[in-house]
Amino acid sequence: MKAELKPVIFYGVPSGCSLASVIASEWLGQPYHLVRIEMMDKWPEQFARVNPRMKTPAMLTAQGDSLTESLAILQHIGQRGVAQGLGFIPGTPNADRLASMLSYLVTDLFAAFAPLWKLYDAGINDPVQKSVLRQYGEDSVRVEYAYLDELLADREWLLGGTKPTVADAYLFAIGRWAEYHKLFALEETFPNVARYMRKLAQDPAVKFALEIEKNSDARGNGSFQGHVDIAQLEISKASFTSNLAAA
Ligand SMILES: N[C@@H](CCC(=O)N[C@@H](CS)C(=O)NCC(=O)O)C(=O)O
After folding, report:
1. Cα-only R_g, the chain
2. Which of 78, 85, 26, 29 is nearest to 205 (CA)?
3. pLDDT of 164-223, one tens digit each?
4. What are the structural domains, with CATH classification, of the chain?
5. Which atom of ligand 1 is nearest to the CA of 73?
6. Is the preceding omega at residue 127 within 30 degrees of 0, hence cis?
7. How confident is the model at residue 124 (pLDDT cuts 50, 70, 90)?
8. Average pLDDT over residues 97-102
9. 120 in ligand 1 pocket by Cβ < 6 Å?
């Protein structure tokens, strides 16, 4: 069974950063499966073999290896999607630019939202703690959105090319959190980010990934091969707990 596996992406709802891995898989246009994780419910035990940290996204590659962390998964998809412009040949300046942008997004931008998720997930009741977390989160997000708004002023896509890369999938997945947490009026405050988000929201792969999150039976462009039951998957050790593979 292992050898026959198509890549499998484990995505989390509600509103997970894993949306990016689904969008990128759809843009790649090669067969893949999905496993849905309801993050507010009890997580399936088997998932610990894919990611012992119990976080989404995670992936089983076509070789059956588990791969965790958005950055690694998106780079993996990007390298398979050089022809589509999703990523670049390793060692080239554009590959460096993409790595740099992805690193910024998964560290600085993602981290800016951390206090807001803490507030959301931990059910904090103390009004002082609540207001400190809220203010700190909002201030941090504003700093990053100001940077992104300037960057996007004269470019259609994040890296300035003519096609979206995996970094655009990730920015859409995270960028929607400002609205989720009702932080500010995006259109008035950061018009370039707003325009960018509006444009991506019209993209068929993005629409598909959002429908999937809603648990609809969306079909996508034909590369999605359906959901699979995690219990049916043969899962070896997660990549970061394994030894280096022989070259
Ligand atoms: N460093 C990881 C973080 C992944 C992460 O925190 N995922 C969130 C969803 S966006 C999650 O799974 N949260 C569930 C939890 O922490 O219980 C990455 O970039 O992939």
Report:
1. 18
2. 26
3. 999 999 999 999 999 999 999 999 999 999 999 999 999 999 999 999 999 999 999 999
4. 2-86+205-241 (3.40.30.10), 93-203 (1.20.1050.10)
5. 20
6. no
7. confident
8. 98
9. no
pTM over 0.70: yes
Per-residue model confidence as pLDDT tens digits over 11-21: 999 999 999 99
CA of 53 relative to ligand 1 center, distance in Å: 9
Beta-carbon count within 10 A of 90 CB: 12
pLDDT given at position 4: 54
Question: What's the chain's length in residues?
Answer: 247
Q: Which is more confident, 225 or 242?
A: 225
Q: How far apart are CA 58 and CA 22, in angstroms?
A: 11
Q: What ligand 1 atom has the least distance to the C-alpha of 106?
A: 19
The response to whether residue 102 sits with its C-beta less than 6 Å from ligand 1 reads: no
Does ligand 1 have an atom closer than 6 angstroms to the CB of 55? yes
Expressed in angstroms and rounded, the spacing between residue 107 Cα and the centre of ligand 1 is 12
Is the CB of 176 inside a 6 Å radius of any atom of ligand 1? no
Q: State in Å: Cα 235 to ligand 1 middle.
A: 20
Tokens standing for residue 215: 């648990």
